[in-house]
């Protein structure tokens, strides 16, 4: 639990530092700096007036809530409950890193060919499968963490970049860096809070001998049972309140250009 909290806190600090750095970016040219300088208040005002970006940020909050329940606790699960050796865990992680590097370019080509939305949806489907795998992972089916780890790495190759590209279409370029920094920081805070609450739930279940409502279940399985439907709801909402309006806006822009 401590490791998960430290991990979540580290990510929060990194995102806050990233936010501060982006907000302090300056152009070397005085003229360019003066012409492109955007006040933070102006960025925030534009964010709150941009319904699609606000919805996209809300989607990020839901995704971060689900991710906070799972990400920081699977490592503990592998060693403590699944009795995997540290050597084996490290070997799987190394393979996952190499796999992510190997699929990054094919994933990018897929997104370029079929669109960033399709690329993001593919990555999100993989993440949903990962959560489902954790639900069925027990000491008897410990090997399920192998496809979980590999799929998580593959999904990471497509989720962040495609998400950024979609956000890029929602905002004017001059607001992009600061707005994304604000969004990432807010999402990191939500994920941090989610991890803290999940850690408390994990502690309660483990204290009760991995029992809840009279059913023997490992804490990570229980958390995955919450994270998976939450993530599926996020995917459906994203389609309805972000992707469909975005595609409608694009089609209208195309029609205007034709006219």
Question: Care to describe what's here?
Answer:
By secondary structure, the chain is an all-alpha fold. It is built from 10 helices and 2 strands; from the N terminus they run H-H-H-H-H-H-H-H-H-E-E-H. A two-stranded antiparallel sheet has the order 1-2. Strand 1 and strand 2 form a beta hairpin. The longest helix has 40 residues, at 219-258. The radius of gyration is 20 Å and the shape is globular. Residues 29-35 have low confidence and may be disordered.
Largest sheet: 2 strands, antiparallel
How much of the sequence is in beta strands?
A: under 5%
Described by its quaternary structure, the protein is: single chain
Number of helices, counting only DSSP H or I runs of 4 residues or more: 10
Spatially, the strands of the biggest sheet line up as 1-2
Number of strands: 2
- Poorly predicted regions are 29-35
Mean pLDDT: 84
Distance between the termini: 59 Å
Helical proportion, percent range: over 70%
| Element order: H for helix, E for strand | HHHHHHHHHEEH
Q: How are the SSEs ordered, and which strands pair?
A:
Elements lengths: L1 H22 L6 H7 L3 H10 L1 H20 L3 H8 L4 H29 L1 H20 L9 H26 L2 H35 L3 E2 L2 E2 L2 H40 L1
Antiparallel strand pairs: 1-2
Report a brief summary of the structure.
This protein has 259 residues and is an all-alpha fold.
Describe the structure using short key phrases:
single chain; 259 residues; mainly alpha; two-stranded antiparallel ribbon; 10 helices; globular
């Amino acid at each position: 639990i401590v490791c998960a909290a430290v991990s979540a806190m580290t990510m929060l600090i990194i995102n806050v530092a990233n936010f501060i750095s982006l907000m302090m970016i300056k152009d070397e040219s005085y003229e360019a700096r003066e012409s492109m300088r955007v006040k933070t208040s102006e960025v925030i005002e534009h964010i709150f007036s941009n319904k699609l970006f606000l919805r996209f940020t809300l989607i990020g909050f839901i995704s971060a809530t689900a991710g906070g329940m799972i990400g920081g606790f699977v490592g503990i699960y592998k060693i403590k409950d699944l009795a995997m050796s540290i050597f084996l865990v490290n070997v799987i992680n190394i393979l996952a890193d190499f796999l992510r590097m190997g699929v990054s370019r094919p994933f990018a080509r897929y997104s370029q060919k079929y669109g960033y939305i399709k690329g993001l949806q593919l990555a999100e489907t993989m993440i949903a499968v990962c959560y489902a795998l954790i639900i069925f992972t027990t000491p008897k089916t410990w090997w399920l963490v192998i496809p979980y780890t590999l799929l998580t790495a593959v999904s990471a190759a497509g989720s962040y970049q495609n998400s950024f590209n979609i956000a890029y279409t929602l905002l004017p370029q001059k607001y992009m860096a600061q707005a994304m920094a604000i969004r990432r920081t807010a999402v990191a805070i939500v994920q941090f809070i989610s991890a803290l609450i999940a850690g408390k739930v994990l502690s309660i279940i483990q204290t009760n001998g991995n029992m809840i409502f009279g059913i023997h279940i490992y804490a990570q399985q229980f958390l995955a049972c919450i994270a998976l439907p939450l993530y599926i709801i996020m995917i459906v909402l994203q389609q309805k309140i972000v992707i469909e309006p975005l595609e409608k806006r694009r089609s209208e822009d195309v029609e205007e250009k034709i006219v």
